[in-house]
Amino acid sequence: MKKYYFLLLSCCFMMAHIQAQNNCEINLEKAKLLLEKDSPFSDQSELISLLEPCAVQGYSKSENYLGLVYLNGIGTEKNVDKAFTYISSAANKDYANAQYNLGRLYKYGIGCSISFKDAVNWFEIASQNGNQRAAYSLGYMYFKGYGVQQDYQKAVYWFERSEDAMAKHFLAISYYFGYGVSANENKALELLLSNPTINSETFVTYIKANQKQLNEVAVEEALDTNISTDSTHIESEIITDVEVNEYSDFLTTDTIEGEWTGKLIQYDWSGNYIVRILPVSIDFVTNNNNIEIIVHVNNQELKSSAQFQDGNVYVDDLTFTLKKLYSSVPNELSLDYTLFTLNLQEKEYLGNTYLTGMVDTFIDSWTEYGQPMSVVLKPKGVKTEIDDEILEALAVQKDQFIKLYPVPFNEQLTVQYELETVSDVYVELININGTNKTVIQPIIKQQAGEYTYSINVDSSLPEGLYVVRLKAGNQLYTRLIVKEY
């Protein structure tokens, strides 16, 4: 008899559980209707009453949707803390969509501290559970080196594991240019033509115009003629086994004073291949550590005030426009690059003195740092041309030692770097004018390895240009970033 009652209670419980699930599914569908533009419902505040009871009971789909409602402030006041709580709860119940969303929260520091390690972890879990967008997101991070070591092969690995349209698009780009795979134009076209996105359709027009080949034909002219040559595109690997004398001391304003001419070099995202060479001239007019900088590039004359510290020229307000080498976005044929920093160094090669250095830029429309760039400059009037041999010797692009996220920053800032040897390390954030200093890491001995700091930024900190200064042993590294309200 007891066994009979036990079975009866078990059946009742199962039926109640199934009914509760059915009710949650019904309410979830009603909530989805509310979010549609053509929904017959008008009161989006009803979303909470539809989703919250099931979310409180631990129904993962309702938790995820309720988290998104709070995240976007739909029908209720925006609350990123509640969004994180509900989405993370659903993610821990193995719901793939929530796992992807949790990865995005960690990536951007919404309701939590920015953590690319956690973002990558949740993207991987979501991908293993079938979320296609998560696999694409991982590929994109590896493609551009955001929060991870830039790696085309890993990017391709994740693009190939996703049916997301943008993953197929970036996989096609990888095959076309040979990023992480052997270049295969036919494979690229096959992927693009079968991919129903405007991005792929736009890129097909680039291929049909034969633009890649036209750019490559022009590269020899850029290397063999003087600086008046028009901009060109090249896929040329950088050779580094050449002898160059580097001056270890920081530059002074007296060293850089005057007009310099040469080349602005743009690289692919790995920093290993030159993709464009532009003629450039830069005139430095110095007054102690204050500088006026006049740049001529791509038929544009640009002027800005700047500051000179630790061998770096920090530019106040200078933006130049470059035509995109290829476009995947209709009507986006060019990009505006804001020049942040010229990290200059004096070098000697074959008896001649040059200024070389990394160029740090920011693309406002993408809210991302630009592709790696560098300059090779000689004093105006020096007859020696900057040919391919000199570029091979001097145009060695080093990876940025300090990586910063997000760009611009507001409430949070993540600082990432990797030490090759044991070092005494000190890290600070300081306004470009030398005020509002925030110590990120007091001096400490650190072992070789990768380090990441996520700091909450004082809301009273003024907007403007800031420098992250990192001293490791006797080496000083800096990176410029913008704070906005």
TrEMBL record:
Q: Which UniProt keywords apply?
A: Signal
Name of the protein described by the UniProt record: Secretion system C-terminal sorting domain-containing protein
Question: Residues of the signal sequence?
Answer: 1-20
| Record-linked PANTHER family | ACTIVATOR OF C KINASE PROTEIN 1-RELATED (PTHR43628), CHITIN SYNTHASE REGULATORY FACTOR 2-RELATED (PTHR43628:SF1)
Which lineage is the organism of this entry classified under, starting from the top rank? Bacteria, Pseudomonadati, Bacteroidota, Flavobacteriia, Flavobacteriales
Q: Which organism was this protein described from?
A: Lutibacter oricola
Source species, domain of life: Bacteria
* Secretion system C-terminal sorting domain segment(s): 404-482
